[in-house]
Amino acid sequence: MGNELAAVFAKHLNRDDHLILCDPVYFGGTVDRRLGSQTITDAVAAAGRQAEYIPTREDCGNRIVGLAEPGDRIVIMGARDDTLSGFAADVLARLVKASV
């Protein structure tokens, strides 16, 4: 579904939006790892949108905090990853601390 996901992002992101994807968390199974996050960000960027592949979640958080400006909306999403709410809380705490 990578091509479909890239097409949706390319169609619905505004010119000022940033898509940042890191490597997903793999929980086993038969998922095909040959087409990963970078394939999606490359396709979205080729469609004229701002998209970055940053391999690690920590570096993605750093990039989000570095890019964010007052009034921005940040969407953090994923599938089957119980740690995303903690990651989102950490990014929010860092943004609040940076704005003080």
Topology, pairings included?
Elements: H1 2-12, E1 18-21, H2 37-46, E2 50-53, H3 57-67, H4 84-99
Parallel strand pairs: 1-2
Helix pairs in contact: 1-2, 3-4
Plain-language structure description:
The protein has 100 residues and is mainly alpha-helical. Helices cover 48% and strands 8% of the residues. The protein has a two-stranded parallel sheet. Helix 3 runs parallel beside helix 4. The longest helix is centred in the C-terminal third of the chain and has 16 residues.
Give a quick account of the main beta sheet: strands, pairing sense, barrel closure. Answer: 2 strands, parallel
What strand order characterises the main sheet?
1-2
Task: Tell me the domain tally.
Answer: 1
User: Order of SSEs, N→C?
Assistant: HEHEHH
Q: Please tally the helical runs, counting DSSP H or I stretches of 4 or more residues.
A: 4
Q: What share of residues is helical?
A: 40-55%
Helices and strands: which structural class?
A: mainly alpha
The whole-number mean of residue pLDDT values reads: 90
Residue windows where pLDDT falls under 50 for at least 5 positions: none
Termini Cα gap: 41 Å
Shape: globular
- Calculate Rg over CA atoms: 14 Å
Report the portion of residues in β strands: 5-15%
> What's the total count of β strands?
2
